[in-house]
Each structure stands twice: as C-alpha cells, then as structure tokens.
Amino acid sequence: MVRDADVDAGTVTDFLDRLAARTPTPAGGSVAALCTAQAAALVAMVARYCDAPELVQRADRLVTQAQQLVVDDERAFGAVAAAWALPRGAESGDEERRSSIGEALLGASEPQARVVETAIEVLVLIDLLRPSAKAGLQADLVAAGEVARAGSTIARMNVESNLRTVPDSEGRSQLLRRMGVTRERA
Predict the structure, then answer these.
(1) 56 is in which domain, residue-wise?
(2) pLDDT given at position 43
(3) pTM over 0.90, yes/no
(4) Most buried of 5, 63, 64, 88 (most Cβ within 10 A)?
C-alpha cells in the first residue's frame, strides 16, 4: 500500500472543521475509517506494553491502512457528489446520469467494505492481546474494541445505504456478501 500524503496533513481540529462544514466530504465514511485507525492505534500501544512485536507490527499496519481509508473514502464520495452534480437532461442523459451515480456509489462502497475488514482485523488483535494485557491495559482494549465496532457499524450502514439504489451486478453482490448482507436484507 502506498501512503497518501493527505493522510498526515492537518490536525484533528482541521478534520473536525471540515467534517462540520456543509460539504459532502468528509462525512460518516471518513469517521468510520478514523474510528478504525484510532482503535488500531490503541491496540498498537497495548501491544507495545505487552512486548508483542509481531502484534505491534500488525497493529501499526492497520493504523496506516485505516488512515489511508479516510482519504480513499473522501475521494470516492467526492466522485459520488460529482455524479449527483451532473446536469439532468433528455431521457438518455438521465440514464447516463443514473449510471454514473450508480457506478460512483459502488466505488464509494469499496473503501467502506475495507473499513469493515480492517476493523475485524483489529478485533482479532484485541483477542490475541487480552490474555497478556495487565488490568490497566484492559480498559484500552475495551475502548479499542468499542471504537472498532463503531467504525465497522458505520461502514456497513454506508455500504448498505450506497448500494440500496444500485442495480444488481456482480460487484454489488460481492460487496454485500463481504458485509454479510443477504438478498433479503438488501
């Protein structure tokens, strides 16, 4: 994975200011990815205290991965906003617009699916660390687990919401299966 320079730009305050603005990005998808990054960072800290270098390395990789997903989500949802901004036109133009929106929504679901998968990896690391973490670190593991679950829940909801109006396709079906969504729920 190539790290994007945008991930490290700005401060938490800058991010929160952008999040609060009346713009399509950042939004819930970026928050889901950031939750997952924070959970992974807590796990990395606990792994360092537990002298578990392999788990530190895995957690650090997940921090980087989730940070990149913040950027990936903003870019992907920017494409959704651009598709929605396409002018309405003749019937054939409206079909092209709908198709562009559908493709953009499908594309915006991919970073969110990866957020869910990353959060699951964070939860696996928490389970591996739990037996060796001292009492004072158990609260950090609980916090990491809750934040990872929050990120995963937000991301799952985003995928389901994005794909609700997208016509059936193999790509749509694969994303929904990755999220554990069956045809009946979709």
Answers:
(1) 10-178
(2) 98
(3) no
(4) 63
